[in-house]
Every structure is written in C-alpha cells, then in structure tokens.
Amino acid sequence: MKETKGIWKVIGASSLGTLIEWYDFYIFGSLATVLASQFFPKTNPTAALLSTLATFAAGFIVRPFGALVFGRLGDMIGRKYTFLLTLVLMGGSTFAIGLIPGYDSIGFAAPVLVLLLRLIQGLALGGEYGGAATYVAEHSPAHRRGFFTSWIQTTATLGLFVSLGVILLTRHSLDADKAKSIAKFNDWGWRIPFLVSILLVVVSIYIRLKMKESPLFEKLKTSGTRSVNPLKESFGHKANLKMVLLALFGATMGQGVVWYTGQFYAQSFIENVCKVDFDQSRTILIWAILFATPFFVVFGSWSDKIGRKWIMLGGMLLAIVTYKPLFHKMLTAVDESGKLELVEKRSVDSSSLATTKYPADAIHTVTEKKYYADGSLLVTRHYAFDKALYGEKPDLPPVTATMRTLGGQDYWLFVGIVFVLILYVTMVYGPIAAFLVELFPTKIRYTSMSLPYHIGNGVFGGLTPFIATLLTTIYTADKLVGLMYPIIVGGLCLVIGVLYINNRIDSRIDD
Length: 511
Description:
Oligomer: single chain
Strand order of the largest sheet: 1-2-3-4
C-alpha cells in the first residue's frame, strides 16, 4: 500500500510539470491563425499561416538537440534536477512570447524573437519527456510499468486540452459583447494564455523541488557506476545504437505522425480546409480529447499483459487505412450542395471596416448568411477597397472569406471522427514510454530513449501540420493530399516495426 501511494505521488508531481510544459508548447499551435496575423505581414494570409506553422515546427526540429543536451545531464547528474531546469526554460520562454510586440510595431524583429523563444521551448521539451518517463518508470514495478507510465502519456493530450480551454475562456471573457470580446482577443487578449502560464510553472517548480531522485539512479550514484560519457555510450556502441535506430524507425517515427495528424493537423484541416468556425473547431477537439484520453491508460495497462508491440503497430495500421475515408467524410459533411437551404432566412449586410492605416469607410464588406435545414450556417464575406477615394490597396484579408457553423448532427459527427483519430493516438502513444525505457540500460537510459523519441515526434511528427498544409497549397485540386505524408511515414514505420521489433513484456530495467 505504501509503495502504491509513493508511486502516485511520483506520477502526480511528474505529470503536473509535464502537462504544464505541453500546455506552454501547444498554445502556440492552438493560436496559429491568430499569431500569423500578429507576427507576420498581412499581405498574404496563406504565407503568414505557413510561416507561423514553420515557426511552430522549428520548436520540434530542435527537440532532438535538447534530448542530447538534457539527456546527457540527466544520466550524469540525475533525473530530478534536469527536468526541473527544462521546466524553468519552457515557462520563461512562454511568458516572454506573450510580451513580444507585433509585426506592426517592430517589423521583422517580431518573428525573429518568436522563433528564438520557440527554439528554446523545443530544447527544453527535448529534455522534459525523457526525464519524466524515465523517472516514473524507474519507480514502477515491472508488471505495471505500462500502466503507470501511461499517465505521463496523457499529459501531452491534456496539455493541448488545457490550452484550448484557456484560449476559449479568454476569448469570450474580455467583453460582454461576443463580437467585441473576440476582436479584443485577436488584438491583444491572445497574450493572456501565454502570460498566465508563469503561475502554473511556479507551482510546478515548487512541487518538483520536493521530489526525491530516482531510486535506480541513486543506486548508480552510490555504486559509482554512473556513465561518464552518455553520448559516446549511447551512440558509439554498435549494439545500443542499433536499439536507438530501431526505436526511431520502428516505433516513434510512426507514432509521431499519428499523434500530430490526429490532433494538430485535424484541427488545422477542420478550420482551414473545412472552414469551420474558430470556436466549434476547438470545442470539437476538446470533446474528442475528453472522451479519448482515458484510453492512454487502457492501452498502457493492456500492454503490461500482451506486450507493447502489437498495440502500437495496430494503431499505426488503423490510421494508415482509415485516414482518407475519415477526412473525406468531414469534407462531404460541410458540402452545402446536397443540403436544403432555408432561402427565406438568407441575409446580406453591407458595412465598412477601419484599420490603423485607413479610415472607417476605406474597406467595404458584404456579408452573406445562408441557413440550412440541418441547422448549419454558411457566412461569406467579400472585401473591397475604395480605390476611387484612397488609391493604393491596403493590407487586406482574403478578398472572400468563408466560415461555417455546423448543425448539431454534423458537429457530433466531427467529434466522433476526431475521437477515432485520437483513439489511434492513444494506441501508439500509451505503451511507448514503457517500450522505450525497457530498451536501454539505466546509466544511459535518459539519453538513449530521449533522442529517438524526439526525432520521431519532434521532426517526423512535428513537421506534419506544416508539410500537410504545404501540400494542400501546392496541389489545390486534392484537399486530402496532405494526408500522404503521415500515411507514407507511418507505413514505413509499420513495416520496420513488424519485421524487427520484439514484443517485450515486463523486461528488467534495473541493470
């Protein structure tokens, strides 16, 4: 009983800090469309969005370097103080992003500063996950290692959940009038989710300072058998390097693309391709996350009984086979051509917009609203600049902008589809921490497991939203072309995993 109580304290302290780091890391991606208008020129909204997604991806690309730096520290000085340092770096960078002036104030210095802070975030996250997963695993009994480490796996998805919740709460609480509240959020309120994170970080630092070091690391420290060169031992020895490469190409590479397709690209697709309303696109994800998150623990626990391999590879296979049908179903659901329009409710309104550069009558808008029998709403805005009065064309949003509000049936259809996508995430992600921990010896575990995890997730997975969105802008005729990237990468990983990964159960990790 005492042992069980102790492990829950370890999980709670580790999970809280890791959840906060994921929250800090993901509010950037959750606000991609808003940040694009803040930190990049407004003349080309598509280019601004791609630039923001590229900055978002940059934080993933440097994660392997963070894994090397902090993994080495974790194997030399200990798990506890290393992932305490990563928490401080992540929290400070997130807070600082909320203070950076926009592009209109300081020009290209704005995206440069954001990029630098994003890189620091990526380095910090590169050291956080390996430390938390190793720390929990080294406290866990062998026969329940998958179950206990799966709680750490929930933190990434819950971090996204919290980020979406804070964003929506802030977006609707800045003014009693909904339209004004949203306008204030897009102007300056978006900074609040970044700034308030510092309070969460301070609480987590306090909790982590009270944690004790991993018992297996303390054993190494007492016996004087700690690694003096974790990088050389991890990647300079042929047998261990083979395990690192197998972990990357047979597990984490596919797991990474499934993770970011199911959560981030799904959100981007719903908002930017299906043109679903900002609030609805996020509440869809919130509901799906809420329903799917318990399955991290279900599959992690199940892996203690039947092994890690086939659960992870089964999730990859299901994703590869069903991605196109599921995303195609979302596209057909928003196609108004087969819906009955309530013509008598249609409205057309004209108005004008003010900008910091032009007076209120410079930009004219025509807003058309179409209502349908299934409860859906299609809003189309046409923008026109009064050249006769003002001559040159200002920085404008798209000439025509479309936004949909889904009817009840389609809304829950989207929730169901995203739930299935995240269910695949729980299959590949739930057992992965136990799988990685069991591959490597204690004295180089932090370094050895962190690198393949963060290359698989940070590079292959983190690039998914950017590459998929880029493909859809190049091949505009096929709105599902972006799915080719996760399908191909996941397929390669599946083949390698089937052929070369062993189905481990209850492996010893105290060597």
